[in-house]
Amino acid sequence: MSATALLLTVGAGAGQATAAPSRAGADSGAPAAVAAVDLERYLGSWYQVAALPQLFELQCARNVKATYTRTAAGTVGVRNTCTTWLNTTSSVTGDARPLDATNARLNVSFLGLGGTYLHTDRANYIVTGLDPDYRWAVVTDSDRRSGFVLSRTPSLTSGQRSAVLSAIRSAGLDPCRFRVTRQDDGAAATGSLC
Questions:
Q1: Cα distance between residue 8 and residue 164, in whole Å
Q2: Which of 6-15, 69-78, 79-88, 118-127 has the lowest mean pLDDT?
Q3: Does 147 reside within a domain?
Q4: Exposure class string for 143-163: b at 16+ Cβ within 10 A, else e
Q5: Within 10 A of 32 (CB to CB), how many other CB atoms are there?
């Protein structure tokens, strides 16, 4: 999973309401974040079902997953795992710090020194869409260089897929640039999300 992998999406699909973006991000030209994220509901395991290709994921053949936990410091612990091309498990741990009270704009760091993660004020994890039941999310960064579709299950239903595509477009991203992520219990092949 990516360093910027907290994905929450905005969109409407299959008769479900979704959280709408509240405002443009604090960074100039940044995508709008959802109005609020309940971090307690966001915690747990998420499957990456699609993403914009990233260099740090080249080693991942399939089964990209993120697990979020509450830390003693009140931040969000991040553990990203995947199955590599050599059929081994690769993992990285990090820390996500909310940048405002909405919890929809975060700085995720994988750079730790002496048990402390180094953070900046840059939103590199913006939840731009979120299913009302927290079943899927779309995440990007201030520059829209990364994009992730996260789901509580290894694959999306057709209704969820429609809502996700709408959320990606609402964030100013091209869904055809997103590549489907292989999951053992989900998508068997990769290709464009659109």
A1: 9
A2: 6-15
A3: yes
A4: ebebbbbbbeebebeeebbbb
A5: 19
Provide the CATH number for the domain around residue 122: 2.40.128.20
CA nearest to 132, candidates 5, 13, 4, 6: 13
pLDDT of 187 reads 86
Q: How many CB atoms lie within 10 A of CB 36?
A: 15
Total residue length of the chain: 194
Tell me the pLDDT tens digit for each residue of 159-190: 999 999 999 999 999 999 999 999 999 988 88
Q: How many domains does the chain have?
A: 1
Residue 188 lies in a domain: no
Residue 6 lies in a domain: no
User: CA Rg, the chain, in Å?
Assistant: 15
C-alpha to C-alpha distance for 181 and 126, rounded to whole angstroms: 20
Residue 184 confidence (pLDDT): 96
